[in-house]
Amino acid sequence: MSENKVPTPHIAAKEGEIAETILLPGDPLRAKYIADHFLTDVTQFNATRNMFGYTGTYKGKRVSAMGTGMGCPSIGIYSYELIHFYGCKNLIRIGTAGAMRPEVKVRDMVFGMGACTTSNYVKQFRLPGDYSCVCSYELLEKAVTAAKERGIPYHVGNILSSDMFYNPDLPQMGTSWDRMGVLAVEMESAALYSNAAYGGANALCILTISDSLVTGEVTTAEERQNTFTGMMEVALELA
Ligand code: HPA
Q1: Which of 72, 162, 182, 228 is the best mutation target for the ligand 1 pocket, counting ligand atoms within 8 Å of the beta carbon and taking the most?
Q2: 108 flagged as catalytic
Q3: Which helix (H) or strand (E) holds 92?
Q4: Backbone angles phi, psi at 113, to 5 degrees
Q5: Is the pTM of this model over 0.90?
């Protein structure tokens, strides 16, 4: 299954302790929330760097959840180890994003069909051109079905994985990426999608909109928790 020995430098799990399908919130406490509220028969497989990881059962299926930290380098490390050393096949990022287009409202769900990026992460695969970071169509189709069944408003399209949260050019970025139809900005998906492609795994990024670069609106912590719960349910259906 794995190409190297486990545990890895960043994940303490033994071989077989992580499920083939794993939910990846940025915040490790969200992984704990998923384990506490949605999973049964839970075991914790990681606490290295407080990046908590758990495996349990959801509707009879084995599923894991682990934090990734923020940004392409951090999710790049964890997703690489999960794919290459632990044999993970379906990696589903669940996170928040800022809306870049007027039709994308706060609290909406966005499925990242493709991920543009300002990061150099993907360039380091040394391809002789620009690589298109795309999600797994199979996971996307299942996620859209789950969102429809729950009546959750959703958008499917391109997103931007930015290296900077506090970007001095943010207003201009809003207009330039918006012009190209990019729906929302976050910080991790390009690394996840390119790592999944390189490792022959499936990946999908599911986002809820926490703030809008268009209107300046932000959600409260309580609202974020509620919208996060809907997103977790959609993601868990992919197990
Ligand atoms: N920028 C980058 N990442 C984000 C944002 C944002 O505005 N909102 C939520 N995640």
Answers
A1: 162
A2: no
A3: strand 90-99
A4: -70, -40
A5: yes
